[in-house]
Amino acid sequence: MNSSILYTLKFIIPVLMTGVLSGCSGSTSPATGGTAGALMFGPEVTSDILVTVYKKNQTGFQSIGFGITAVNGSFNLYNNGASEPLWLEPGDYSFTLESIGPPVQFPAPYLKPESSPLNVNWNSDMTSLVLQAPENLLRG
Q1: Between residues 21 and 125, which one has the greater pLDDT?
Q2: CA dihedral in degrees (87, 90, 93, 99; nearest 10)?
Q3: In degrees rounded to 5, what are phi and psi of residue 132?
Q4: d(C-alpha 84, C-alpha 65), whole Å
Q5: DSSP assignment, residue 44?
Q6: How many other CB atoms are found less than 10 A from the CB of residue 94?
Q7: What are phi and psi of 3, to 5 degrees?
Q8: Can you state the percent helix, strand and coil of the chain, rounding each to 5?
Q9: Per-domain boundaries in the chain
Q10: Fewest 10 Å CB contacts: which of 4, 73, 96, 134?
């Protein structure tokens, strides 16, 4: 290789690597969390559970966001694109569960907002939510 190519590469590669290592997104950073919550299975918790939130309206339920549980069962809500935090407004909500990590199979009622027993009537005095599911769901 001639020395001019080596000289050029010597400066181009670090510039390219800086872009790669910084993520190359060039756009917005991920949203920070909205409404805080926790998913409990009796006294037990688990991570990697997708908690989807649906707002009840006149025609049924509309998916408005989600959270993913951490090791301690906590989560924060985000809008469906995860581009903004989701802050619950007063109203009726239903939550569904899906495992994205541990081998947990949730019963059918927990998979659809129409049948999920995880429901909350959110009011303006509330600051966080706790979803309580039966302990045996983690063993099933």
Answers
A1: 125
A2: 20
A3: -110, 115
A4: 10
A5: B
A6: 21
A7: -70, -30
A8: 20, 35, 45
A9: 36-138
A10: 4
Contact present, 92 and 113 (Cβ < 8 Å): no
Token pair, residue 50, equals: 């997708």
Q: Contact, 69 vs 49, CB < 8 A?
A: yes
128-133 and 91-99 as β-strands: parallel, antiparallel, unpaired?
A: unpaired
Contact at 8 Å (CB) between 122 and 90? Answer: yes
What are the tens digits of pLDDT across the range 87-124?
999 999 999 999 998 888 999 999 999 999 999 999 99
| Residue pair 57/89 in contact by the 8 Å Cβ criterion | no
Domain 36-138 has CATH 3.30.70: no
Whole-number Å distance between alpha carbons of 50 and 34: 15
**Quick one: 36 exposed, middle or buried, by C-beta within 10 A (0-12, 13-18, 19+)?**
middle
